[in-house]
Amino acid sequence: MDIRIQSLKFDADSKLIGFIEKKLAKLPKFYEEIQSVEVTLSLLPDFENKNVLMKVISPGNDLVVERHAQTFEDAVVDCIAVLKDLLVKVKEKKRDK
């Protein structure tokens, strides 16, 4: 699984990148056919200004989840939780065919 992390208008520190990679490493347990994950980190002008957009690319369908929170870590955890549920649904749908 290829992981690409992009931060817009700021430099993400290695601690944040390591945190994201560690969390994403668990996703193949829920759906083995993930080819790559694109993560985009950005800042918003409002109170919960840390925005995370994750795009999971796999054969047949791409999943996109976007969340924002007070910290990037919270937004990443929220995205991963949603992606886990979506990947399980995709896997079950594929198995039922």
TrEMBL record:
SUPFAM superfamilies in alphabetical order: Ribosome binding protein Y (YfiA homologue)
One protein family per Pfam: Ribosomal_S30AE
Entry protein name: Ribosome hibernation promotion factor
Organism: bioreactor metagenome
